[in-house]
């Protein structure tokens, strides 16, 4: 929990009560504040000054960092227009050089101007570091990252979430719902030492039973899981077919299919 008694998920977002499992139902959650839309954010320095433990980010102008609870470090930097900010959260391992590079890159590329809910992953190529294999910086809107919601909703709306990533992890066609699922459940963007996590959209058709999974019902899964399902179909000796309609590794390309007969 943070100092306000909020339970945070791995991305550093406040977990809403309706997101809790039964085992966590007794954990107190601070109710969301009512937002005065006319108030907005007029001075980020004043807002950050009210954040417990916030301090200037070393070597980066108009930027701050703080740790809301053990394991987490939140880093925030104003954009070039000073009317919004970029935030990168890390867990367990804080690499100041990497965080600085990501925030500077996001600021130089003006990613906040491109982010929108209809394009939940804004992917900026050309990023590189000496110690990691990341080749892009990704920006996400507040509807995806949900930072500060439940504590300061007005601030959350003015923050663009950014993180280093691999270009193979995105197709560029993700819906908002898919982006939230990928951000919260699959990518682990706060883990700076993570491997690449490309994904597949699975589809199957069982000609024996008539069951299938198509359209919006096709689930997202890891590439390794695709081949596991393929082997299951073959071993089970039932007529089926799996394929990938979208894949971050090769957008729009079917990576595998299997047909079994009995």
Describe this entry's structure for a reader:
The chain is of the alpha+beta class. A seven-stranded mixed beta sheet has the order 1-2-3-4-7-6-5. Strand 3 and strand 4 form a beta hairpin. The longest helix is centred in the middle third of the chain and has 14 residues. It is elongated and about 65 Å long. The termini are far apart.
Structure in a nutshell:
This protein has 262 residues and is an alpha+beta fold. The protein has helices at 44-49, 96-109, 142-145, 153-157, 176-186, 223-236; strands at residues 55-56, 63-66, 72-78, 85-91, 122-125, 136-140, 159-165, 199-205, 212-213, 220-222, 242-247.
Shape label: elongated
Total beta strands: 11
The SSE order reads HEEEEHEEHHEHEEEHE
Largest sheet descriptor: 7 strands, mixed
Q: Helix- and strand-based class?
A: alpha+beta
Mean pLDDT: 75
Beta content comes to: 15-25%
Q: How large, in whole angstroms, is the Cα Rg?
A: 21 Å
Q: Report how far the terminal alpha carbons are from each other.
A: 54 Å
Low-confidence segments, ≥5 residues, pLDDT <50? 16-39, 242-262
